[in-house]
DNA sequence: TATGAAATTCCCTAAAC
DNA sequence: GTTTAGGGAATTTCATA
């Protein structure tokens, strides 16, 4: 039941900054860090979850699983809303697509693909982009090395410097 | 203390697939899903954590926080290992850099930047790429819309289709 | 409306086997 | 790997400002 997200105060920003780095912290520890009781922290966190603002996931080390990552930039054939919708649905449904961003400028989309090897990667990219008529051009770039890995978003608390 | 990751069996693959989607699942629920006792699940999970294979984080919805994302592709001036090391350290240390990948081909790096607005974004990109002598060229692409968002890596269990 | 404190329930953890 | 037992955390309730 995703309700609409409520406005966030300073407590929220600081909690979200901490949770983005480590979601295993206890309510007591979080409360001590921000100056709130465990109950208050608990209430706020369940609000984040039910509003759809936050979800908690495990992030795996790509190097440890030696999977093949690739970045693909894509330009569509025509500026048709219909075709964009179909493309986006395909991206969301493909399990190998990690991330997909619509871009400003000459390239319409950036797509990050995670596969189990170069052969699998080629197969997935062909299926997703080659066998589709509404794609004008796409460039596949294999990832040699992951330098930094995460999805942290900036909050006022992060800007102010909560970093340990 | 990060020990070296042990080889993974089918139980591990299935657990990791589930945890990548929802890290709040209880040990009992995970155990029921894969056919293991909660204690066995617990031991495996602590192994993932201590080996550095897995970390648990909160992922926030970029739309809800209306932050500005940008993708930057970068080509270095010369193929000097030293300069690459310095660049990578800078990427890792910059809080606005979400992800950084070294690429094969004409572009050396893909960098994903998360900022609080276009002004902040321009400032960050200038600081990270413009004011640096060893960068030959970089292209900044503002993100219009986030179509898909995640860091899920493929495991044999995911390929086999654990998806609900 | 949101907080803090107490009470309950449930889960995580670490034994033992 | 499973079962057991204990401590600890998450969750609910309640009184309050």
Radius of gyration of chain A: 20 Å
**% residues in beta strands of chain A:** 25-35%
The helix tally of chain A amounts to 6
**Which CATH architecture of the largest domain in chain A is right?**
2-Layer Sandwich
Q: Categorize the overall geometry of chain A.
A: elongated
Oligomer: homodimer
Descriptive report:
The structure is a homodimer of 164-residue chains. The mean pLDDT of chain A is 92. Chain A has two domains: 10-58, Orthogonal Bundle (Arc Repressor Mutant, subunit A), CATH 1.10.10; 68-142, 2-Layer Sandwich (Alpha-Beta Plaits), CATH 3.30.70. By secondary structure, chain A is an alpha+beta fold. The radius of gyration of chain A is 20 Å and the shape is elongated. In chain A, strand 3 (97-103) and strand 4 form a beta hairpin. Chain A contains six helices and five strands, in the order H-H-H-E-E-H-E-E-H-E-H. A four-stranded antiparallel beta sheet of chain A has the order 3-4-2-5, covered by helices on one side. At the A-B interface, helix 1, strand 1, helix 4, strand 3 and strand 4 of A face helix 1, strand 1, helix 4, strand 3 and strand 4 of B. Strand 5 (135-148) of chain A pairs antiparallel with strand 3 of chain B. The first copy, chain A, binds a DNA duplex (17 and 17 nucleotides) through helix 3.
Could you give the topology of this structure?
The structure is a homodimer of 164-residue chains.
Chain A: H1 10-21, H2 27-34, H3 38-51, E1 54-60, E2 68-76, H4 81-93, E3 97-103, E4 109-115, H5 118-130, E5 135-148, H6 156-160
Antiparallel strand pairs in A: 2-4, 2-5, 3-4
Helix pairs in contact in A: 2-3
The structure holds a DNA duplex (17 and 17 nucleotides).
